[in-house]
């Protein structure tokens, strides 16, 4: 009987969760055999028809790096699922994996970094928001009565009040993922314009480190706001009309160059859109109090 994949979970101070997997050599060898068999179907080797070469010949042509990567793609989903179940984890994002050791004839070790959604302490956010209206409407002798603010101005004030009130420790990996996404989007835009990152940053008086620090602060605020609004929506029992979700789905699909392929994708998109709409409703309800 094959040895069992084992995992050790460690919670870190920055909110990350480190999972160290030990992959038994017999499972590794089986995954390698499956990998080579799969590769053999598409590999062309002189003297043999495509996909008809002996496995031994195919194995000679497969690089060690490719063999390790493909074998891990067989093993890690199972390893992760078992660890989640055994340790009762509710991970927020798919882990970032790092190979620790993969010596011939020995068990392999892999490290995965992920996190769970952090606890959200809302504090008295409604008091903070209603206080905005009271402080703004105080009449000062000799001054004109305060003018009604535009919705966008109220929204900015409400967002700041929420960020100042809520208490959340954002896991480091969530911030890193958001920063990477923002940098990727910036690089894509610059590439379309034919600009280099260093040249662009020089023109606006910033450095790469400075930009990253700026993005980190923005990422923390954005993640904090999303989590806080989700908690507020849950606390206030906010519901979304299914028709709104369907309408949002239609607009979302129409904006995509690639159509949603299956029902699972559609349901996943619906859940995401429902969550976004709930957060929007939560924010709008607070703007009315400001």
Using the coordinates above, name the CATH class of the largest domain: Mainly Alpha
Return residue spans where pLDDT drops below 50 for at least 5 consecutive residues. none
Net shape: elongated
Strand order of the largest sheet: 1-2-4-3
Specify Rg, calculated over alpha carbons.
26 Å
Number of strands: 4
Compute the number of structural domains.
2
- The structure class reads alpha+beta
**pLDDT averaged residue by residue:** 90
Q: Using the coordinates shown, work out and report the CATH topology of the largest domain.
A: Trigger factor, domain 2
- H/E series, N to C? EEHHHEEHHHHHHH
C-alpha end-to-end distance = 65 Å
Which CATH-level-2 architecture of the largest domain?
Orthogonal Bundle
Share of helical residues: 55-70%
Give the percentage of residues in beta strands: 5-15%
Largest sheet: 4 strands, antiparallel
Explain how this protein is built.
- This protein has two domains: 6-114, Trigger factor ribosome-binding domain (Alpha-Beta Plaits); 125-287, Trigger factor, domain 2 (Orthogonal Bundle), CATH 1.10.3120.
- 58% of the residues lie in helices and 9% in strands.
- The protein has ten helices and four strands.
- It has helices at residues 25-40, 55-61, 64-87, 125-136, 151-165, 172-193, 197-203, 208-235, 242-254, 263-287, and strands spanning 6-11, 17-23, 96-101, 108-114.
- A hairpin with a 6-residue loop joins β3 (96-101) and β4 (108-114).
- α5 crosses α10 (263-287), α8 crosses α10 (263-287) and α9 (242-254) crosses α10.
- It is elongated.
